[in-house]
Amino acid sequence: MATILLAEDEDSVGAFVARALTQNGHQVTRVANGLAALGALAAAPFDLLLTDIVMPELDGITLALKASKDYPAMKILLMTGYAAERQRAHNLDALVHRVVMKPFTLKDIQKAVAESLGG
Q1: What 3-state class would DSSP assign to 101?
Q2: Would you give per-residue pLDDT tens digits along the chain (119 residues)?
Q3: Which residue from 2, 40, 50, 108 could staple onto 104, CB 3.0 to 4.6 Å apart?
Q4: Where are the alpha helices (DSSP H) in the chain?
Q5: In terms of Cα–Cα distance, which of 26, 92, 23 is closest to 53?
Q6: pTM score > 0.90 for this model?
Q7: Domains of the chain, CATH where assigned
């Protein structure tokens, strides 16, 4: 299975997503913001970056831009609950596999991750 970096500032959402993905056999590393995600990316390789768009310190779009430049083989999947943020992410189609709208179900996030990983 895959190694996944999950950047999500809402603890309840992060716990839900991490649980959904570990149920599928993935190894999930959780961080609370984009700056922490950059540190985690520098410390270990990941197959997928799954990040919220709206986060303190460094948002998910800025994180996706930096990560895609520094780790071009890594897949990137964004999450948001804001329609305007989804539109901002739409401009990143070449870098981001998909934007998952919140709220989502366990099966929704598992499917989006599987599709992003090519499964």
Answers
A1: strand
A2: 999 999 999 999 999 999 999 999 999 999 999 999 999 999 999 999 999 999 999 999 899 999 999 999 999 999 988 766 666 665 666 678 888 999 999 999 999 999 999 96
A3: 108
A4: 11-23, 34-43, 60-70, 83-90, 106-116
A5: 92
A6: yes
A7: 3-116 (3.40.50.2300)
